[in-house]
Every structure is written in C-alpha cells, then in structure tokens.
Amino acid sequence: MTNQHRDYLHTIDVAVLRLNFEVSQVEVLVHKRLNDPFAGSLALPGLVVSGSTVDTSLPGAVKRLMDSDKVGMATRFIEQVGTVGDAYRDPRAWSSSTYYLAFPEEHVELSDDQMWLSMNGILSGAYKLPFDHNTLCEDIFKRLESKARYSSIPLYMIGRDFTVGEAVAAFSIVLSRPVQKSSMRKRIVKMLEDGYLVETGEKRSGSSGPKSEVYRLVNGAEPYIFDSSLER
C-alpha cells in the first residue's frame, strides 16, 4: 500500500454576534461564499492560514479576518472559544479550525454579501451552514450563555450607554429566560463600586414608567466576573 499525501488546512472562523431587541434574539453575521466548496452558501466568516499566508500569529490572522470584507467592522470584544479538527469537516482535506466569538460596535453597515441570521434558526437546524459551522455556532452560543450567568459579557452586546432595563433585556435574551431587575441592580452596583461602570448623570425614558439612570462601561474594561450565578 502506498502512502497518499493529503493537504491539511487550518482556518480561523468567527461568529460576530449581536442582539436584535425587536425580535428578542441573538443574531450571527454570515457572508455569501464566493468560491468552492459551497460557493453561494451563507457561512461564518473565515480564512485559511498556512506557511504561504502573511500571518505570523493567531492574533495576526484574526485581525486579517476582521479587516477583510467578510467582516469589515469594528468590534468591541473578541474571544477565542476553541479548536476542532477532523478529516470530514472540509471536503478539500483534513482540516481544523480555531474559532472565536465577537461583538460589533453599535452601528455597522453590511455589504450585499453579508446578512444577520437568527442564532435560534441555526441551532434548530432551520438554517444549514456549510462545513461544521452549525456545530461551531452551537459551541459559541454555549460559551456566551455560560459566561452570561457569572459575568457581564452581555453588556458588550448593547450600546456603551445603557439603563438597568436594557441590561435586563440583554441578559434575558442571551439566557432565554426572564431576569429580575433587582438581581441586575445588584450587579450594576457591584460594577460601579469596582470601577467597571460609571454613571453618566443622564436619564433615559423606557417603554413605560419613569426615566432611568444611564450607565456606561469603562473603556478597555474586561468583562466583570461576579462571585455568584445570576438569579432569576
């Protein structure tokens, strides 16, 4: 038996996530693939890294991807979620992927080849993405949901300025369950005390009731880690 050489591919893939408050859903950025395999399909933004690419590190490859027309938007937060690989996820060769979650800045414009898809639609299988991108989205959403229980990470998915009510809505969407305002107020007080938030001195009207205090995330602050899981 002769040994047959097979190419190996490593990719960087990213799920850029946003909150759509109008429909109370997490949405994922996808783009239309221009080349085979799966030309014309909607997929997570990604790129191949190899000895012939310009990248000398994973952060460099991630920056190249985020600057490309597959993403092309400023992000507030990005985190590596994991690495997977096998002989079946890519029809071209044995391949692996290091994949990330990211949150965009507040106002972004999409190209004609980009769109937002419902994360629920991807997780349910209503949207079939190429390669193993449905599985990557499942892992990425599990990371987001898990960290939302004990950290401030959903606050990075809303505007830099927000009210308690808007924070409650963000956490409730990510966790797929109602979150009490009293629990969120305790978290905001803790973040204020430890310098992760500041009061803007402004008030904003909500859908009902009196105007609410507006808070702002401190620039450059990492997600806050709480000492207990979020209560219902």
Automatic annotation (TrEMBL):
InterPro entries in the cross-refs: NUDIX_hydrolase-like_dom_sf, WH-like_DNA-bd_sf, WH_DNA-bd_sf, WHD_NrtR
Organism: Pseudomonas nitroreducens
Superkingdom of origin: Bacteria
Domain NrtR DNA-binding winged helix: 156-217
SUPFAM superfamilies per UniProt: Nudix, Winged helix' DNA-binding domain
CDD domains: NUDIX_NadM_like
Name of the protein in its database record: ADP-ribose pyrophosphatase YjhB (NUDIX family)
